[in-house]
Design brief:
The structure holds 2 protein chains of 2 kinds.
Chain A (H helix, E strand, L loop, with lengths): L1 H22 L18 H4 L7 H4 L4 H9 L4 E6 L5 E5 L1 E6 L3 E6 L12 E3 L3 E5 L5 E5 L4 E3 L13 E2 L4 H27 L7 H21 L8 H19 L13 H17 L3 H8 L9 H44 L2 H39 L8
Antiparallel strand pairs in A: 1-2, 3-4, 3-9, 5-8, 6-7
Helix pairs in contact in A: 1-5, 1-7, 4-10, 5-7, 6-11, 7-11, 8-10, 8-11, 10-11
Chain B lengths: L1 H33 L4 H28 L1
Classes of the chains: A mainly alpha, B mainly alpha.
């Protein structure tokens, strides 16, 4: 059993790595405005003297918070007093129509540097949308291609397959999950089903919980086994990324489950699995809802069709909003310290952060559970047992 | 100005969701107090209903943010 789970788990998670970097192209406002101004980070402000260059500038809470919840091409750790940045460079992989494939370290384009014609974009450009109207598009956080005079090329937005912060943490979580579950599978193969020990003692009750309290009641005893690999995969993937997102230092802390592209991919999985495992009853419910007069069909069919989309859409927004909101609250509370610059604010603020972190711990489990529960529910709803007329 | 209105809209949506989830929670408490042995089932149903309400509220918030 576990081997089959693992095969599916592996293929799903590997799929992630290839799917999600592409979605970075639609990235939210990412951070790093090409470093013309020294970044005001928590560390720069943390000087005891309070007279450093960075600390004299106005603290911009919105920028600070957005920088921390969004994805980026490098892993910024701190800014020193003299304006030096300490960050972990990550690989940048670009495909440009003009010059082909490129791969280099993000250090080469950090803080306004130009490498082989690539640099971090800032400001906005005018682009035409499908209707022919010109709209402004932000270049913040995107890598652009420029000519030797520093002017952006016409097709200056290369396809960005970079291993960004989020992708890096996702890979890390994949490695952790594979390591945990492969070693568990090996031990189960050797020992058989016996009293769980060590790591198994921690994971087995969770798996049994997903099986008995999530899958069986919602999907049904005969059919649930087929969907267990998916449900367990999303549960542990979301849970691990939620928890890792709460740890504020280096290899963790990227806001993976608070990135709408990631949650969208997860929701699309649920949508596709739901639709492809549906039976006749499900489509009958959509196109010819039992008990509804025929003349209502022009209203009922569009509503039911929209209903198919809104369920995974709500899944996507729910996870994204819950995790991002949690991070924003914690970061806002930390920002209070630098806005008021007073120890009487700092102490209660830290207590509030501690309190919020505990709530976030609860939310991390709850959201992973709710995503799994609702996925199971939607899958179960798409295969009704008997017609109700 | 638009930002302020959007924030008010988001706030109103949250009030609605708060009332809804509060009522679910209260009723679930009553139900569990009356029938403690059905607690597990009530809890699952409660979370599903709360999640659906939350979904509606999130739509409102997304619309408020985009508007």
């Amino acid at each position: 059993m576990s081997e089959r789970y693992l095969a599916v788990l592996t293929s799903f998670l590997i799929g992630f790595i290839f799917l999600v970097p592409g979605t970075q192209l639609y990235g939210q406002d990412e951070h790093h405005e090409a470093g013309d101004t020294p970044h005001e980070t928590i560390d720069a402000q943390h000087d005891e003297t309070g007279h450093s260059e960075a600390a004299d500038e106005e603290f911009n809470a919105t920028e600070y918070i957005l920088e921390h919840v969004s994805d980026s091409h490098e892993w910024h750790i701190l800014t020193k007093k003299d304006g030096h940045h300490v960050s972990v460079p990550l690989p940048v992989i670009l495909y440009s129509k003009q010059s082909g494939l490129h791969a280099f370290s993000s250090r080469k384009i950090a803080h306004g540097h130009n490498h082989k014609g690539f640099e971090m974009g800032h400001g906005t450009i005018q682009v035409e949308n499908k209707k022919g109207e010109t709209i402004e598009k932000s270049l913040k956080g995107k890598i652009i291609e420029v000519d030797e005079h520093g002017v952006m090329l016409a097709a200056g937005l290369p396809l960005d397959f970079s291993i960004t912060k989020n992708v890096f943490m996702m890979m890390l979580s994949v490695i952790i999950l594979l390591w945990v579950f492969l070693s568990l599978a090996r031990s189960y193969k050797k020992m058989g089903i016996s009293e769980p020990k060590g790591l198994a003692g921690f994971i087995e009750p969770v798996i049994v919980f997903i099986e008995e309290d999530v899958a069986i009641p919602n999907i049904g005893k005969e059919k649930y086994a087929r969907f267990m690999p998916y449900l367990l995969t999303v549960f542990f993937f979301i849970l691990l990324n939620n928890l890792m997102g709460l740890i504020p230092f280096f290899p963790f802390g990227a806001n993976v489950t608070g990135n709408i592209a990631v949650t969208m991919v997860l929701a699309v999985f649920t949508f596709v699995i739901t639709q492809f495992s549906s039976n006749k009853g499900h489509w009958q419910h959509v196109f010819n809802t039992p008990g509804v007069p025929v003349w209502l069909a022009p209203i009922m069919i569009p509503v039911e069709l929209i209903g198919l989309i809104t369920k995974p859409f709500a899944l996507m927004i729910r996870l994204f909003a819950n995790i991002t909101a949690g991070h924003i609250i914690v970061l806002s509370l930390i920002s209070m310290i630098f806005i008021f610059k007073s120890v009487f604010v700092a102490a209660p603020s830290m207590l509030m952060v501690l309190f919020m972190d505990f709530i976030e711990l609860l939310v991390a489990f709850l959201q992973a559970y709710i995503f799994t529960l609702l996925s199971a529910l939607f899958i179960g709803m798409a295969m009704p047992e008997h017609h109700h007329d | 100005m638009t930002g302020t209105l959007a924030a008010i809209g988001a706030g109103l949506a949250v009030i609605g969701a708060g009332i809804g989830i509060g009522r679910i929670g209260g009723s679930a408490m009553d139900a569990i107090a009356r029938q403690p042995e059905a607690g597990g089932k009530i809890q699952t149903a409660m979370i599903i209903a709360a999640a659906l309400i939350e979904g509606a509220a999130l739509f409102a918030i997304v619309v408020a943010m985009m508007g």
